[in-house]
Design a protein that fits this description.
Strand order of the largest sheet: 5-4-3-6-7-8
Largest sheet: 6 strands, parallel
Strand content: 15-25%
Shape: globular
Helix content: 25-40%
Mean pLDDT: 88
Radius of gyration: 19 Å
Low-confidence stretches: none
Distance between the termini: 39 Å
Order of helices and strands: HEHEEHEHEHEHEHEH
Length: about 210
């Protein structure tokens, strides 16, 4: 019933917008396509932005070194609401495979809060690498944590142009992400940026990407 209602709402949204809206604004061309507005003459794409402060990234992070923000390096961060679409469970599973199959000494930091917090804590508790997975909850300094990390991980099922990706680009923090249209669209604007896109939701392939 919920899905039927959502489908009706979206159909009404498209119909009213296409007939009455002077402007339809999306954050990416891929979102416009998903919403059915890609061919509309009223469409304008206004992409999200992030402030770049120059190449201030520290490249000297060493194994086990502690950053001023409390990150132990190598540090992998995943940032976002703890809701189903962000698929933080995939990040935890992939990190477990990474740690089992290699000599990696990385730590995974999960930054954010939401309705799946208890479920994800249970998943971490059952991981053999639970001592190297930290749920930090909501952090007002998430941007600084992304800049201080060695890698940003994005495992979402769907994204427009995520602010965390732009923050990583601004800070020069490499990215591993699932291959999503909005993320591909963003990275095309930054040729040569260190990013790896994974065309799969399989934890083993995300682990290989990491």
């Amino acid at each position: 019933w919920r899905n039927i209602k959502l489908s009706v709402y979206l159909s009404l949204h498209r119909l009213i917008a296409q007939r009455l809206a002077q402007r339809i604004i999306t954050v990416s061309a891929s979102v416009a396509t998903d919403l059915g507005f890609a061919q509309s003459s009223a469409l304008r794409v206004i992409r999200n932005v992030a402030e770049a402060k120059g190449n201030e990234r520290q490249q000297s992070n060493k194994l086990g070194e502690q950053s001023p923000l409390g990150l132990s390096h190598p540090a992998i961060v995943i940032v976002g609401r703890l809701v189903r679409v962000k698929r933080v469970d995939l990040a935890i599973q992939a990190f477990g495979i990474l740690g089992e199959g290699t000599r990696s000494k990385a730590t995974l930091y999960i930054i954010g809060d939401g309705e799946l917090r208890d479920e994800l804590e249970g998943l971490v508790a059952n991981s053999q690498l639970r001592s190297r997975i930290r749920l930090l909850g909501f952090r007002s300094d998430a941007k600084e944590l992304i800049a201080a990390a060695d890698l940003l991980l994005i495992t979402s099922d769907s994204e427009g142009i995520p602010s965390v990706l732009l923050e990583a680009v601004a800070a020069g923090t490499p990215v591993v992400s699932r291959q999503l249209p909005g993320i591909e669209e963003t990275l095309r604007m930054f040729p040569g940026f260190p990013a790896r896109l994974i065309p799969s939701a399989k934890p083993i392939e995300i682990a290989q990407g990491l």
